[in-house]
Design goal:
501 residues; mainly alpha; 24 helices; 64% helix
Length: 501
């Protein structure tokens, strides 16, 4: 779509004005030594990788070394300092001078927390961080539409979640301290904060190295416990229980990340959805004339495998972050009142098997990008009285403004409505076991429908997404409409109430 010349001129002037500040902040990029950058450049030339992607990959694995080092750092302020310094190092390595966006966002939000009432902050801070993130997405789409350059927006998405959550943590803390009735605040009481963290621990949280590049973003209270050790030790330094080994909780996601990398490179190379030579300008492989001439089932199977390979890059990043947190026990949940270890779910961002074998949209959503799902549930869904449209809209804004995102997110409710009515009117007739014939049918149907819908999320452009859905005869949408219309006419089974003595 061609923008009006006057608007284009305004946008260009605004972008140039922001870019003109780069020389002012260039001197701040001091943590990555020149020999390190030269080494990455040499390695990139040798293996044929582009430098930004290699920087990001190296950054993910450097987190392991930082995590091991953190085990030798005393609990307290020193850990906040390390998180801050290591986080800035990773940002400067991967985005250069653009790291300043995370600093500006953090400092402006902190100033708001200092001077504004909590009831104002809970509106202003989330609005500010979401708008900042949105502008980052729009800038990227404007200067490089359908491009895949690595810039500050990935880290900005993480910091948006953190500051959004923190504003509600402080608001909830004030409400609970005053004894005010608020259902949402009570549900989120474990994360509520009565006082604003000091600047050091605040910046340590926003720049926490193990999650700064690709998440997951978890609650400030969880981060604070990892730094002060209160999830593992009493105030006098005694263990609250038998400290579990962190070897397998670290090694397991590391192995998964290696597997996902291999799948993404090998299988993704065999089943590309976009043109491998120029994905930005050339027609996607799945829309070429030669591909469309193949039988529909073959085309759909190809797309299904290609989408499976694409999502491995997200699993790769999340598993690395999980391992980088677990290696210094930041991913450990602590102990219950009986001194029994709770588990390692803090930094786990995906239940891979549950996601791949999900019998319904709800289970699938909970298994994918779990911490983002929690953010949306705690701070959007329950704050808007269960408004699904608000949830999907926020998720879409947070991801960016490519039409494919909105085609996907606003199509998911249609499948969700079908799921709900199916549970109400069909499921009671069948056994609840997941691996029963009915359960397997649900797993297959869920996979077929969601892979069709999510293809737009990957293809991004409106015309490409529409043409891809059209090449599959809009079966996902049409099937959902027919299913809902037919099942709505079925009688609702009577649920027998348990007899009381």
């Amino acid at each position: 779509m061609q923008l009006p010349e006057s608007l284009t001129n305004l946008l260009d002037a605004s972008i140039d004005a922001v870019y003109s500040l780069a020389p002012v902040f260039e001197p701040t990029v001091v943590l990555v030594p020149s020999f390190f950058r030269d080494g990455i450049q040499s390695l990139a030339d040798t293996i044929g990788f582009d430098v930004p992607t290699l920087n990001f990959t190296v950054g993910m694995y450097i987190c392991y070394l930082f995590g091991i080092f953190m085990n030798y750092v005393p609990h307290g302020k020193a850990r906040h300092v390390c998180n801050l310094v290591f986080g800035i190092f990773l940002l400067q390595l991967t985005t250069g001078v653009q790291w300043i966006h995370q600093l500006v966002t953090s400092l402006v939000a902190y100033a708001m927390f200092l001077v504004l009432p909590r009831k104002t902050c809970v509106l202003v801070v989330p609005t500010f961080v979401v708008i900042y993130c949105v502008l980052g997405h729009l800038h990227r789409q404007y200067i490089n539409y359908l491009g895949w350059d690595l810039d500050f927006t990935s880290a900005q998405m993480v910091i948006t979640q953190k500051l959004y959550m923190l504003s509600y943590n402080l608001y909830d803390g004030e409400l609970l301290a005053r004894g005010k009735e608020n259902k949402a605040a009570k549900k989120c009481a474990p994360f509520a904060l009565e006082q604003l963290p000091d600047l050091l621990e605040y910046l340590g949280y926003t720049f926490a190295f193990a999650s700064i590049l690709s998440g997951p973003a978890f609650e400030f209270s969880t981060y604070r416990k990892a730094c002060d050790g209160s999830h593992m030790y009493t105030a006098d330094g005694r263990p609250k229980g038998e400290i579990p080994s962190n070897f397998w909780p670290t090694f397991r996601p590391f192995l998964q990340s290696i597997f996902s990398m291999a799948v993404f490179v090998v299988v993704g190379g065999m089943f590309p959805l976009l043109d491998p030579v120029d994905p930005q300008r050339n027609t996607p492989v799945v829309l070429t004339a030669d591909f469309l001439a193949k039988p529909w089932m073959q085309r759909y199977a190809y797309m299904w495998v290609g989408l499976w390979a694409v999502r491995q890059k997200y699993i790769l990043a999340w598993c690395n972050a999980e391992a980088a947190n677990n290696v210094w026990y930041a991913g450990f949940e602590g102990f219950d009142e009986n001194g029994k270890a709770k588990g390692w779910e803090v930094a786990n961002n995906m239940d891979i098997w549950e996601f791949e074998t999900a019998p319904n949209i709800q289970t699938m959503s909970k298994g994918w990008n779990k911490k983002t799902s929690l953010w949306l549930t705690r701070y959007v869904y329950i704050r808007t009285n269960g408004n699904l449209v608000a949830v999907y809209a926020m998720s879409a804004f947070w991801h960016g403004f490519y039409p494919g995102y909105y085609l996907f997110f606003f199509s998911v409710p249609l499948a969700t409505f079908c799921e709900r009515i199916g549970k109400k009117k069909i499921s009671p007739y069948f056994p609840p076991e997941k691996w029963s014939p009915y359960g397997i049918c649900c797993i297959i149907t869920t996979s077929l429908c969601t892979e069709y819908l999510v293809s737009a999320f990957v293809i991004l452009a409106l015309d490409r997404s529409w043409d891809l859905w059209k090449s599959h005869y809009f079966f996902g949408h049409i099937g959902c409409v027919i299913f809902y219309a037919v099942v709505s006419m079925l009688p609702t089974p009577k649920v027998e109430k348990p007899k009381t003595a």
